[in-house]
Amino acid sequence: MKEAETLYHQIGQSLADAEESQLFGKPCYKIGGKAFIAFFQQEMVFKLRGDLHHEALNQAGAQLFDPSGKKRPMKEWVQVPFASRHEWKRFAEGALEYVGRGEKKLI
Predict the structure, then answer these.
(1) Which distant-in-sequence residues (6+ apart) come within 8 Å of 3 by Cβ?
(2) Using one digit for the tens of pLDDT, what is the confidence trace for 62-96?
């Protein structure tokens, strides 16, 4: 499904200061050296917390990100299916704000 990967890159490239990189061998975008979105199994993955994390996890077919497949999901990371692609940009912006703001606090 090339459409999912294309949309992922369009969103990542549209976000200010986002840098393309890798996370566990998967494509991701980082801010300040910290990953905030990724692409895995034709779905987008977001590092979120609070209400936005809850909203993302409640999308049909969404799940906590488990890149190893060994039932050790990453609690802040939510994998959202292509069927919810209309929400991907909003979740990506929330992830950028969450991770980016955390970086600024350290400076």
Answers:
(1) 82
(2) 999 998 889 999 999 999 999 999 999 999 999 99
